[in-house]
Amino acid sequence: MKNILDRNQNKAEEVRRLLESRKVMMINIISSPGAGKTTLLERTCEVMAGEVRLGVIEGDVTTDRDAQRLKKYNIPIVAINTEGGCHLDSHSISMALEHFDLDSLDLLIVENVGNLICPSQFDLGETFKLAVVSTAEGDDKPAKYPMLFSEARAVILNKTDLIPYTNFRMDSFMVDMAAINPRITIIKLSALKGEGLEEWFSWLRMQLAAYSAG
Amino acid sequence: MKNILDRNQNKAEEVRRLLESRKVMMINIISSPGAGKTTLLERTCEVMAGEVRLGVIEGDVTTDRDAQRLKKYNIPIVAINTEGGCHLDSHSISMALEHFDLDSLDLLIVENVGNLICPSQFDLGETFKLAVVSTAEGDDKPAKYPMLFSEARAVILNKTDLIPYTNFRMDSFMVDMAAINPRITIIKLSALKGEGLEEWFSWLRMQLAAYSAG
Q: Which residues, numbered 84 to 103 in chain A, qualify as contacts with chain B under a Cβ-Cβ cut-off of 8 Å?
């Protein structure tokens, strides 16, 4: 296992250097199945594809359903089918990158396989990790699965429109998050209902500006 | 990896023989984080602990929060902390079994780590796997993560009370499930709201009767 992680890390550093040389910011989105990664990506394509040159890598276990959902945005998409594998790794990303014209991209978003545990161990060469968690999963997810949340630069708390119908306690979620990662940015929104998206877009624009400023 | 799976399978067969010799039915519950495994277990303890001799093995990545939630039911519980590991295996179950008096048990429920992918590869020696999926995760989860759903004897579709507030399409879910596993039992309920639980208890009683009849 240590060997696998070491080889992944080496290739990730190579990917990171390549992307930096081409000035492409890469986000690695990680969440449980059904937290709303693809819906967030749809909303993000709708708005950001007109502002920046955007590409997507779609990781899926057995299907290419998520890649299909994004086709209408007319952006470059590469689908990686892990054939049962529980996470993406830097080698599959490196191969996927060969299908993009990196000089024509500003932002590459990777949608990892739906899994809150294994993907957090595998550096893909991303600029940063973005965690997505849905209010319907309960407020205890950061405390129970701290690996991802301690590393991510931001967490999107999705499906805020469902809070009135669940036993999600915001104070408990915020206290746990602060204990695990006091510097993390927390963005609350409902990707499906379109609520709170402006905060996400503003934050994303800030990250792009900071990245291109070097 | 093949080696790990082979060793797991051998130990799982040993666990299965041991449990059969003591007439203990074991259920391996698998779901994404936050689908509602622990809440279902709470409801199940409330009702079934008075009918059968029930024990629980609680798998968690870093905490023992789920085991704590079940303490009030005064049943034997063993917590397994996987220390970051993404699934339970038959060796940890075998060691946990040493802490139970198996002759005083009819039913042992294992709550696996919250992960829809890796746990489905590891036979624990269970009588059957039970999948839990929440309506808030979306109707496409069986199609996107078929490994678990093709093996499970039943799937609990939890959080049915949230359907009016989501884009979950029941017909799409049912069609996909039938394609993946036409023999699977589908039980719809809301563990939090207490709706539909009787169907789950009836089905569970049937499985227990069939198991003890041999």
A: 84, 86
Contact A137 B34 (CB under 8 A): yes
Task: Fill in the DSSP letter of residue B134.
Answer: E
Nearest by CB to residue A162, choosing from B84, B143, B165, is B165
Asked whether the CA dihedral A90, A94, A100, A106 is positive or negative, the reply is positive
**Is residue A88 within 8 Å of residue A82, measured between CB atoms?**
yes
Per-residue pLDDT tens digits for B102-146: 999 999 999 999 999 999 999 999 999 999 999 999 999 999 999
Chain centroid, CA B96 distance in Å? 16
Contact (CB, 8 A) for B113 and B88: yes
Question: What is the complex's ipTM, to 2 decimals?
Answer: 0.92
In the predicted structure, residue A179 carries a pLDDT above the cut 90: yes
User: Which among A62, A138, A192 has CB closest to B144?
Assistant: A62
pLDDT per position as a tens digit, B53-106 = 999 999 999 989 999 999 999 999 999 999 999 999 999 999 999 999 999 999
**Whole-prediction pTM:** 0.95
3-state secondary structure of A44: helix
Size of interface A-B (CB pairs under 8 A): 114
**CATH superfamily membership of B2-212:** P-loop containing nucleotide triphosphate hydrolases (3.40.50.300)
Q: B114: burial class by Cβ within 10 Å (0-12, 13-18, 19+)?
A: buried
Separation CA B25–CA B125 (nearest Å): 10
SS3 content of chain A, % helix, strand, coil (to 5): 50, 20, 30
- CB-nearest partner of A138 from B34, B138, B141: B34
A136–B134 CB contact, under 8 Å: yes
Do A144 and B116 count as a contact with CB atoms less than 8 A apart? no
